[in-house]
Amino acid sequence: xxxxxxxxxxxAFELLEPLVQAATVRVHAPPGGYDxxxxxxxxxxxxxxxxxxxxxxxxxxxxxGEGGAAVRLTGREVGITFHSGRxxxxxPGAPGAVTGTVTGRVECVLPERLEExxxxxxxxxxxxxxxxxxxxxxVSHACVWLTDRSRPRFDEVAYFGCTEDLGTPEIxxxxxxxxxxAGNGAAIRLADDDEIDPGMSGGPVVxxxxxxxxxxxxxxxxxxxxxxxxxxxxxRTLPMPARGQVGLYxxxxxxxxxxxxxQHLSDLDNRRTWTDVHGELPPQERxxxxxxxxxxxxxxxxxxxxxxxxxxxxxxxxVRALVExxxxxxxxxxxxxxxxxxxxxxxxxxxxxxxxxxAAMLRYATDVSVAEYxxxxxxxxxxxxxxxxxxTAERLWRPLRRELGExxxxxxxxxxxxxxxxxxxxxxxxxxxxxxxxxxxxxxxEVWAHGWEHLYDWxxxxxxxxxxxxxxxxxxxxxxxTVAALPERLRAPLAEAFxxxxxxxxxxxxxVAVAPELFGLAVEDWVVAxxxxxxxxxxxxxxxxxxxxxxxxxxxxxxxxxxxxxGPDIPAGGPQAHPADHEAGRAAARWARVQAGPLQDERADCxxxxxxxxxxxxxxxxxxxxxxxxxxxxDQEPTLGSLHAVRDAGYGVAVTRRPPPDPGVSCAxxxxxxxxxxxxxxxxxxxxxxxxxxxxRAYGADPDAYWAAGAGLxxxxxxxxxxxxxxxxxxL
Length: 732
Fold this sequence. Notes:
Elements lengths: L6 H17 E5 L16 E9 L2 E4 L1 H4 L12 E8 L13 E13 L19 E6 L20 E8 L6 E13 L4 E4 L13 E4 L4 E9 L6 E5 L16 H18 L8 H7 L16 H12 L7 H12 L13 H6 L10 H13 L11 H12 L5 H25 L19 E8 L6 E8 L8 E10 L4 H16 L8 E4 L20 H4 L2 E4 L35 H18 L3 E4 L2 E2 L2 E2 L4 H5 L5 E4 L9 H10 L4 E5 L10 H14 L5 H13 L11 E5 L17
Parallel strand pairs: 13-16, 16-17, 18-21
Antiparallel strand pairs: 1-2, 1-4, 2-3, 3-6, 4-5, 5-6, 7-8, 7-10, 8-9, 9-12, 10-11, 11-12, 13-14, 14-15, 19-20, 22-23
Helix pairs in contact: 3-5, 5-9, 6-8, 8-9, 8-10
C-alpha cells in the first residue's frame, strides 16, 4: 500500500485484494502438453490478465502478441496460470486455493486492424489494445466484478498484475489515483503514486470506492511511475454478430452477471463474494443517494442476474430509449453504445433532478420487463423480473409502488399492441413489406468540401428515423481530411454508429449526405469491420445535404413534419401557397408513386452512349414512377447539372454510377442490367436492399452482377429529414 491513503481506501483495498488476486492470472507461452494443475513449465511471463466470466480471460492485445509481429493473434494458443477456487480471506496462498495452468485460445483482439498492422517493438499498440482469451478446459476459478458505468470516476484505484520482485511470479496490487482520460475516453491515465512493473500489463484496475473493475493496465511511463489503462467499457466494441446471432459481448456479460448472481444466492459455503464485500465497503462521503436512494449490493446483483436471464435487447437504440424514458432526457451520447440491459443501468447512476438512483433503476427494470426482446424469453423470466421490482419497491415509498404498477400495466398494453401490429392485425398502419428498409434509426455520414482545398470536414450521427423525424444524435466529427484518409478516419466513428443502430434482424441503413459532386465517393467499398465492404454488409444510399440555404427535403415542410403524399389530385396550394410548398407537394407525390411502382428507367445524362443535359421541362413531364439514371462522372458536366435538375424536379429516387477506369468501356451493359433489375424489383421501396444484394453477388465473384460496380442510389426519404445546419469549418 502507498503511504498517505485515507483510512477508507486502506480498508477497501484490504477487503478487495483477495477477490482481485484470486481472479488475476499470469499469461505466458502455452504449456505444451503440461496443462494439468501443478505444472510449472510455463516459461517467462508475457503479462497479466483476469477472469471476467467463467472460461473468459481479458488482457491486452500486446500481451498475447508477445513473440513476434509475424504471429497471428486471433486463434493463437497461450498459457494461463491461475488460482483455482476462491480463497476465504488469506489471498491466493490461503487454504483451498490451488495454482494451476491451462491452455487458452485468443478469441479476438481489439481493434481488429491489429491483425493487419502492428506497431514496432516497444511502441504503443493502438487503442483499445484488448484481447479475449477462451480457456480450453473446464476449470473452477473466480471472476471480477466489472463496472457498468460508461465513464470512470476519478477516485482512488488499485491495479494488480504479475510481478517477480522476490524472484518468483506472484500477483500483487498497488494503489494510485485516476487523473484523466485519453483516446476519447478509451484510456484512463494512472497517477504516478507507484511504479507499474512490466508483467502487470493486462491486469485489472479496481475502483476502490465502488469495488468494481474499471480498466486494464496497458502501459507505464518510461520515467517515473504512472501510466495508462484501457477502459473496460471498450469491450462493447467487440465485433458485431451476424444477423440473428447473439454477439460475444452480450454472451460474456450475461455469463458475468449470472456467475455473480449464482454466487450471491449460493449457501454451499461461507466464502466471501463480491456482493458481500460491496456491502462492507466504507460509505462514500457526501453521497446524495445513500441509504434508500440506492439499491443495496444484493439488490443490484439480483437485478443484474434477472436482466441476464432475459433475451438481449433488439438494438442499442432500444436500450437508450428506455433510459431516456426514465431519465427524462437523452442519455450520454458519447461512445461506446450500450448493448445490453445491464449497460442501461450504467446510464442511470446519479440521475438528474434529484431522483433517487434506486427509483430510476426500478422504473427501468419495469420497462425492461415489458420490452421487446430479440426472441421470446424463457417462460416466466419477465414476470420474475417484475415480481422482484414490486417486492423491492416495498422498502421504498408508497407513491413509487403505485407508479410502478401503473407503468407496468401501460407497458403490457403497449407490448400487446406492438405484437398485434407486427402480425398485421393492428392499428398504426401495415407492417413493413418484405424487402424494404428497416424502419428504425439509420447512420448518417455527412461530408463537406473544405473551401477551395481538396480537404473535407465530416460528421457521423444517428438519425432517429420516422419515429422522431429530424432528430439527430452526433457520434463524432472531424475536419481537414483528404479523400484518401477518409476511410481510416471514419472507421471507428462508423463502427460506433452501427453498434447503436443495428438490430438482431437487420443491419442499419447508411445514408451518405454529400454535395452531388461527391456522389462518386466510394463509401460502399470502405471496410469498417469484419473485412467486408460496407455496401455488402448493409444498404448504403446517397442524400443531398441539408445545410443552410438548401431547399426543404421532399415531402417535408419548414417545420420538419411529413406531408401526406396524397394521390394524383394533390392541389398546387391555396391562395397563400408558397412555391416551395408546391414543389414539396410534387416531390411527395413522386415519392409515394415511385415507392409503389411499377418502375421504369430513363437515361438522364446519356443518349446512346453520348452525354446529354436534360431540360427541366423534359424531367417534369416524365411519369412519377420514373427512376432517372446517370452513368457518367458525378463531378463533371452534364451529370452534375443533371443531378441538380433531377432533384429540383422532385425525384427522390435516382441512380448514379462511378464510371469504370477505362473510358472506352461501353455503358450499355450497365443500363441493360439496371433496366432488368428495376423491372424485377417492381417498386422502389426494395431498391436499397436489392442493390446491397447485387454488391454481395459481385463481391462473391458473380459475373452476372459485375455490371453494378460503382452504382449508387439517391434516396431522399421524406420520413428521414436531414438537419438544416452545417457544422462549422475548422480554422483555415
